[in-house]
Amino acid sequence: MAEQLILNLPVRPALGRDDFFVSDANAAAVAGIEGWRDWPHGKMVLVGPDASGKTHLAHVWAALTGGCVIGADDLPGLDPQGAGQRVAVENADQLPGVEAETALFHLHNAILGQGGRLLLTARSDPARWPIALPDLKSRVQQAGVLKLNAPDDALLSAVMVKMAADRQLALPPRLVSYAVLRMERSLAAARSLITAIDARAVRDKSRPSRQMIAALLAEQTE
Q1: Lowest-pLDDT range, 14-18, 79-83, 127-131, 145-149?
Q2: Which one of 12, 95, 120, 157 has the minimum C-beta count within 10 Å?
Q3: Structural domain contains residue 112
Q4: Residue 170's domain is classified under what CATH number?
């Protein structure tokens, strides 16, 4: 079953990054990203918890549209006219002060004034963002919202197999399934576990096993 899940997951190429796997947990968000030409008001907010794939999907969008990705910390001093017509701003719910809010306001107006597209990533819906600038607050609340859910078994399995392969680590599907049923439901946890398995296998000069994975999971919860 695990082998079938891993092999059947469709893949979206990401510019300069690993393949982006699609499952029920993120399929709706991916469809919304791919439909960027039809975004209402030309803007969209991609919402998800930490390590849910927001950054990866923002780069997929940039590759798809010929746009760019910047961080909230890059906003102060940014020339809104020179940023391009398709821009993704990461961590838009964590703008570092009024200067950044003002820069995002001008960037928003410059992009939409040219018929461009603006993608914002965040951990929560725009209504909950601590924005002091009323004009910016009203504009981001007009944006559509796409949500990334916590990764399901299929997505965690696929990501773990890819991470293991990148490290040339032989991790059979039965061990992936064993780990997925017992680990924290996040891509960050998957990355941490694969790193730990690889390090332990090298240290002990042994292949991954259920006993090894069980011990590492127990250590991570201590």
Answers
A1: 14-18
A2: 12
A3: yes
A4: 1.10.8.60
Task: Compute the distance between CA of residue 118 and CA of residue 106 in angstroms, rounded to an integer.
Answer: 12
Q: Which of 137, 115, 135 is nearest to 127 (CA)?
A: 137
Query: What is the rounded average pLDDT for all residues in the chain?
Result: 87
Quote the pLDDT of residue 162.
Answer: 87
pLDDT digits (tens, 9 = 90+) for 91-122: 999 999 999 999 999 999 999 999 999 999 99
Inside any domain, residue 48: yes
> Could you tell me how far CA 5 lies from the centroid of its own chain?
21
The pTM assigned to this predicted structure is: 0.79
Three-class secondary structure assignment of the chain:
CHHHHHHHCCEECCCCCCCEECCCCCHHHHHHHHCHHHCHHHEEEEECCCCCCHHHHHHHHHHHHCCEEEEHHHCCCCCHHHCCCEEEEECHHHCCCHHHHHHHHHHHHHHHHCCCEEEEEECCCHHHCCCCCHHHHHHHCCCEEEECCCCCHHHHHHHHHHHHHHCCCCCCHHHHHHHHCCCCCCHHHHHHHHHHHHHHHHHHCCCCCHHHHHHHHHHHHC
Residue 12 has pLDDT above 80, yes or no: no
- Clarify whether residues 58 and 141 are in a common domain: yes
Domain tally, the chain: 2
In a domain, 1, yes or no: no
